[in-house]
Amino acid sequence: MAGTALTAFSHSMEVTPMRIGFIGVGNMARAIIDGLLANKTVAGSDLYLHSGHIEHYGDYAQTIGAHVMNDNAAVVANSDIVVLAVKPKIYGRVLDVLQPAFAEHKVVLASIVSGVSLAELSQHVPAGQPIVRLLPNLNVKIGAGMTAYAINDAAEDDAQTVLGLFDAIGKTMELNEDDFSTFVALAGSAPAFAYLFIDAMARAGVKHGISKADAVRIAAQTVAGSAEMVLAGTTSPSDLIDQVCSPNGSTIRGYLTMEDKGFSSSVVAGLDATIARENGGD
Ligand SMILES: NC(=O)C1=CN([C@@H]2O[C@H](COP(=O)(O)OP(=O)(O)OC[C@H]3O[C@@H](n4cnc5c(N)ncnc54)[C@H](OP(=O)(O)O)[C@@H]3O)[C@@H](O)[C@H]2O)C=CC1
Ligand SMILES: O=C(O)[C@@H]1CCC=N1
């Protein structure tokens, strides 16, 4: 991503070659791996993978040249960093089985499990285990991610190795754990909301006679450029809206109609629902 506005959050370290394990090779693990491979931060041979069903990830592992491990303990035994990328409902069971492996091998645990705190993670690993909690988003796949992180005391010396990886595939920001649920709504889940907006724009294009493919490209490029404008400068989104809305023009009519239909309040309500779920609600 070209934007540099968030470089204050970036870590200047060089990423040294290391062995990176993944426990769980689903959508998010693959986005991270694909991003790291695409910019050559790691090679496939640096990766040690184990996931639920070999038929779901065996071909992928072979394609990228990663090592397939027989079980999660073998991932820990062969790695310097272990990325925990399983669903929140099973993370405890997965870690409990791995206590001896963590006790025997010095690794940094990098959890991307949404909604699970450092304190909760530490209940399932030996005392003194270095842990970095991260919340990335899908855009790490193209090096344009937004990742929040928090580290425990034991990870003070080792966290940089993990953070360097995530800096290589987007922006990173240290965040108070109390704010992680809000961050999920603003960044972790938000690609889905941005895609929803792009898709809705494209449907309007189709309604007015442009092909869906062309309308998606037009809408996506416009959203990407608009985001770059916000990141590149110091002008607020609301001032930029004023620059597009000509007096008595077409944009102000569209803007006011969207607000009349509840655009901003719908977006806020959607993020509220995401945050509530992250905090344990329905
Ligand atoms: N998707 C996203 O945008 C984001 C997700 N996250 C977090 O990342 C984590 C993974 O999410 P996501 O990738 O979307 O989910 P997926 O369901 O795509 O991936 C979860 C993976 O875990 C594997 N798995 C299941 N049981 C085990 C086990 N016992 N040992 C090892 N692997 C196992 C599954 O394998 P199989 O399917 O073969 O059973 C699957 O590949 C979640 O905790 C989520 O909160 C965080 C930020 C963003
Ligand atoms: O939907 C979820 O639960 C996860 C959290 C962030 C993105 N996906």
TrEMBL record:
EC number per UniProt: 1.5.1.2
Source organism superkingdom: Bacteria
Entry annotated with the keyword Transcription regulation: no
One Pfam family this sequence matches: F420_oxidored
Domain Pyrroline-5-carboxylate reductase dimerisation: 177-278
GO CC terms: cytoplasm
Catalytic activity reported: L-proline + NAD(+) = (S)-1-pyrroline-5-carboxylate + NADH + 2 H(+); L-proline + NADP(+) = (S)-1-pyrroline-5-carboxylate + NADPH + 2 H(+)
Purpose of the protein: Catalyzes the reduction of 1-pyrroline-5-carboxylate (PCA) to L-proline.
Protein's UniProt name: Pyrroline-5-carboxylate reductase
